[in-house]
Amino acid sequence: MAELIKAIVMLLAGLGVLMTGMKMLSDGLGRSAGGRMRKLFGKISNNRFASIGVGAVATVLVSSSAATTVMVIGFVNAGLMTLLQATAIIMGANIGTTLTGVIIALSGFSLSSYMAVLAFIGVVMNMVSKNDTVKKVGSAVTGLGLMFVGLSFMSDAFNTQKISSALNSVFLKVDFPLVLILIGIVCTALFQSSAAMTAILVTMTGAGIIPMQSALFVVLGTNIGTCVTAILASFGASTNAKRTAVIHLLFNAIGTVVFTTFIWIFRRQAVWLLCAMSSSPQMQVALFHVFFNVITTALLVPFMKPLTKLATLLVRDKKNDDSVLKMYYIDDRILQTPVIAVAQVLKEVSNMAVMARDNLGRGFDAIASGNLGEREKILQTEEKINFVNKGVARYLIKMSSLSLSRSDEKLVGALHHVIGDIERIGDHAENFLEEAEQMHENGITFSDDALGELANMYDKVKYMFERSIYVFENRDEKALQEISDLESEVDMLKRVLGNNHIMRLNNGNCSVECGTHFYAIISALERVADHLTNVAFSIKSPSGSQLEAMEKIAKEQARKHHGAAV
């Protein structure tokens, strides 16, 4: 009895170490390849083969097809990816996940014990090196080593006489293919990881607990079971996001039906072929997993459009309500891949800035023309900006708890200030509308000279808006001096316009009531310029401080100059 308890404890401990190792490998690879991951998803196109490649590479980097699929559901839910593109990426993800199975299958060779030493090597890399990239790679290497430590624990547990004989007798009796497929589905759904189930299956096969001809059907079941994660992730998502989860299920279900039919008829021949390709039972299971996903993808690539149409028929459209407030680029599902989440939150903030810019223009036009026709549009957009501001703030708090690189941690901290500045710029559009309404009610109009001066100042701020958004989106430090100069010009313009207006008041060309509105508008434009400066300088200083940013740039230039001189 004591031996059985010890074996169960070892099995659970091994599984825990294995899954911890997989998580560390995924985080390490994801963080070290952060920039490449962002570029990778930036290359998504309507070319189905390119998108399949993107899905495969992304899954290798995150070491989980379920994570990639959930991330894709997030993209579709945010409207950043079409259903056809998502289908291709899911196909690629199913191919990419087979690499984890092949790595796990290496436990069947004598070198597996040496692979476990990687855990120590990775820890040393983390402790000794001060280089951030080396530390990230070290985490990935540690994770890979821990995977083999976990597999060793599990192998020892399954080699225990009582466990191996009990399980062996069960699988000898449970030989019906559909029951074996169901076992694979249920176990994978419980673990919510096909890789973990594959690891258990590989270890059991290596220990001789489950015959190869039975193991093949369990593998087919794991491919359907892994769809549960995506289906759960699609709850509460858009119609197309739900269709993406359905496509994932259809892909694996169709592949399972085709392979089940073939192997049921030619079971012995299939086992013989795998045995001819490798003497290791573990590698035979991994190779079958590879064949399943590669062949299923090859069979279904020509039928991608019919597959999306079938998903569209199964999940019907809902009525669209344009008045519903929503985020445009971010989705909680994307948080599973922090490097992509960072890229998406930057897009969301940029979109928020564009909304604020356009709304400011509408507000100023209401003042300049006296036309209040855009009133509802201004108020609706202001409501959207406030909604996005709160949504991004919550998202940034969630991101703070993720495994981010140092540069991304600083960026997330800076974005809290940036969205505050953009939200305040949005408020000025509403203020402009209020000024226009008051002037309209009281019959107040500006002179041609005053309107010309206001238009000139607004054009300067509008140009500064464009440049600030460019600097923020492209992280262009070289353009910061231009932003600083533009802010100085706006400050000077405010003083000049104020003096000119005093002269018009003294000459009797303008009323005191008109002057109140004039000063309110030029003061608002000057404050907008201040907020834009903060947004641009946030790429160098988290708080958007010009002084702090310029000091950092000066120190970096001095360091480069000193290095060149040496």
Structural domains: how many: 2
Task: Write down the overall mean pLDDT.
Answer: 83
Report the structural category: mainly alpha
Continuous helix count: 25
Helix residue percentage: over 70%
What fraction of the residues are assigned to beta strands by DSSP?
under 5%
The ordered H/E elements are HHHHHHHHHHHHHHHHHHHHHHHHH
Largest sheet: none
Rg for CA atoms: 30 Å
Number of strands: 0
Q: Quick one: overall form?
A: elongated
- Low-pLDDT segments, ≥5 res: none
Structure commentary:
It is a single chain. The protein is mainly alpha-helical. It folds into two domains: 2-314, no CATH class; 332-565, Methane Monooxygenase Hydroxylase, Chain G, domain 1 (Up-down Bundle), CATH 1.20.58.220. It contains 25 helices and no strands. It starts with a helix and ends with a helix.
What features would you highlight for this structure?
81% helix; mainly alpha; 2 domains
SSE diagram, text form:
Blueprint: H1 2-32, H2 34-42, H3 48-62, H4 65-77, H5 83-96, H6 98-105, H7 112-115, H8 118-128, H9 132-158, H10 161-173, H11 177-191, H12 194-206, H13 212-225, H14 227-233, H15 239-265, H16 267-277, H17 281-300, H18 304-314, H19 338-369, H20 375-400, H21 406-442, H22 448-474, H23 480-506, H24 512-537, H25 546-565
Outline of the structure:
It is built from 25 helices and no strands. It has 566 residues and is mostly helical.
